[in-house]
Each structure stands twice: as structure tokens, then as C-alpha cells.
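To fix ideas, we close by showing one paired sequence and structure record:
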Amino acid sequence: MTTIAILGNGRVGGTLATALTGAGHEVTVAGRAPGAAADAARTAQVVINATPGAGSLDRLTALREELRGKLLVDVSNATVDGPDGLPADLLYPRSSLAEQLQEALPGTHVVKTLNTMLFTVMTAPATLDQAPEVFLSGEEPQAKEVVRELLMDLGWRKEWITDLGGIRTARATEAAVLFVPHVIRAGGFAPFAISIAR
């Protein structure tokens, strides 16, 4: 059992909380109440960033001390939204949110994952007609191994998990969010994941 704090109580945070609790982990979801995020992060072994990506850097930088020595799993994408509310551009076009977080939080192990799919697939990958893929980006091998185990608890098979390498590789998966509005407009709000066919 892992003690997990999820920052963000929207659809992504709620979906992850339900699934991880069902897998036997001790999960706390921090809402917007003053001090809630700090209290949750302070007592957790793993912290999941499910806050809106555009404001994640400021929110998490404010928790630098609480996150020191912790594993931070970043599932958010930092985008500039278009008039329809869907991603239109990247907030960090020559970088990524994960890289920005790792630079701002040098005492924290940041791992990027689960950001290349509709949120419903994060906890139910086997519901897709084809084998999906989920990617890992991060500097610390042991931290990525912990995240790999959590992904398997969420229903991801070992062969569906691809370690891309260091945190810099997160800029590739974060850029994939630009597919999302076009996929949704073309096929509706149906579950999907961006995967590599081999």
C-alpha cells in the first residue's frame, strides 16, 4: 500500500482517486481549501499533480518544502486553450510542464505519465479496442519503477508501458495534447490513447 496525495479534485483527480483507492492504496484528494494541498503532500509518499496545467507550476512551487524528497507524478498538460476550451497551443513550447517542475523542485523526483489519453482511459485502458500505450519520462529509475507499479494497479499491462528516458522526453508527450481537439472534433468525446504501432 502506498500513501498517495492527489492535487486536483476534477475529473482526472477523482477518477484516479477512485481507482487507486480500489487498488488498496491510501488516497487523499486535496481540493482548493487553504492549506489542503500542503497538508496532503506533507504526509504522502507519492503526490499526483492533477491540477490544470496552466497553473500547476505556481501551485507546486509553493509546496517546495512539502514535496522535498517525494515522488511527484505529473499527469497534466500545460496548454493555452482556444475559444472552445480545447487545447490550442503549448504553454511551454520549447520545454514541458514536467521539465519546469523538475527545475523548480530539484529535491523532488518528477515522473511524467498518463498525459496522452482521454482521462477515462487512465484507469480503464483495457476498454479500448486496441492495445493502448502509456509513457514514462523522468530522471530517477527507482521513481519510474514505483510509477510503473501504480500504472499496473490501474490496469496497464507491463508491455503497454514505455519508458522514454529522462524528463526532457516529456516535451514530446506533452506536445501530443495538440492532437486532442482534432481527435475529439473528428470522432466525438470517445475514449482514446495516443500509442505507437509496431
Notes: The longest strand covers residues 3-7. The chain has a mean pLDDT of 95. The CA atoms of residues 133 and 150 lie 15 Å apart. Strands lie at 3-7, 26-30, 46-49, 71-74, 79-81, 87-90, 109-112, 134-138, 161-165.
